[in-house]
User: Fold tRNA (guanine(10)-N(2))-methyltransferase TRMT11 from Orthonyx spaldingii.
Amino acid sequence: EITSLLSLCGGHFSGEQEIRVNSPFWILNIPSEEMARGLMKRTVCAKSIFELWGHGRSAGELYASLKNYPLDKMLPYLQSDSTYKIHIHTFNKTLTQAQKIKKIDALEFLPFKGKVNLKKPEHIFWILEDYGMNPNNVPEEPIHLYFGRWIADGQRELIESYSVKKRHFIGNTSMDACLSFIMANHGRVKPNDVVYDPFVGTGGLLISSAHFGAYVCGTDIDYNTIHGLGKASRKNQKWRGPDENIRANLRQYGLEKYYLDALVADSSRPIWRKGMLFDAIITDPPYGIREAPRRMGSQKETDKAVERSTENHFFVSSSYHLSDIFFDLLKFAAEYLVMGGRLVYWLPIYRPEYTEEIIPRHPCLKLISNCEQMLSSHTSRRLITMEKVKEFKDQDENSYLLDGQYMPYRGHNSFREKYFSGVTKRIAKEEKDNQK
Assistant:
């Protein structure tokens, strides 16, 4: 997310130190404070950003680092007519007030000339102490210390204000608000973009893009979901209400003006005219766990079985293999994304069999990032971000069929069976343990 947002702000990712996976603190080299503020106006992963004045693996190293920090960069924030306060944050340890005061007093060598104001200071300085990730083995002294000037906070409050629990219209697979905003940031969604979701469902992914000023639209094969009909997903509610739909969700957050429309359509069939271009495609395809992957059936299947979904509305659906979903999605993105536009989607993975080779590829799309979210001990899903780097030609349409790596992708089709085999084994193990 940070890498994508930096590129959106005109910067690039470069860490002054190797990013430690087992630490919540990063040191980034960002060229301007304006760019840092732009980053924090979007991120839901980062909590705060600071101008780093000094750091070290011990208090002595921190103080030496602070003494070496250029005085001309400090002085604008330490003037006699200014107010300030110093805040201490410890990760994985709680300090007493006396301990905090002692650590603040130890910074008296810094040339603070202003007055302390704990309620409304002009400048806030933070001491950050990292005590590691193991709560059962907390060291006496921090393993790393940082001191810096606070610049801005991230957008963590969006997770609560856009919570699915408070949303007007939800479904069985409505996307978590935090993940939805992360996906919009991976897609580098910006004001006046047009963002499309081919598996739109209840529109959870449209909301985060609309929040960032993009115009949003989507399609789904489920007539009932698009029209807000049928059984409700909420507990203690049998049927959906008359105003439970995607438009109502955007209206709830004051974003209705960004809503283009949602269509009942099969994502595997072409419905858009040539030249219809999207700035981002952000979606969560069905994996076959809570929602079955479906597409429109053939005429032969139509003669065999006609399913009635609503009054005066008929459609036939057939099974839609996961591997086909992903290849249709990549082909669509390659054709209908603008150059530099991004495709962001979730790929379910059976972890014991996972290798990088099973990530679907397309010659017009470059893999930008591949992030894992654990679902269980044996399954996870990967947030895949791809960027269009080459114009789509007719010969690219089925280019993946000629690729020798195509066969490993077929493993996605059995994800449902592998998922439930793991669930069955876990239940059997729990029952066996309870009998002991």
The first strand starts at residue 48 and ends at 56.
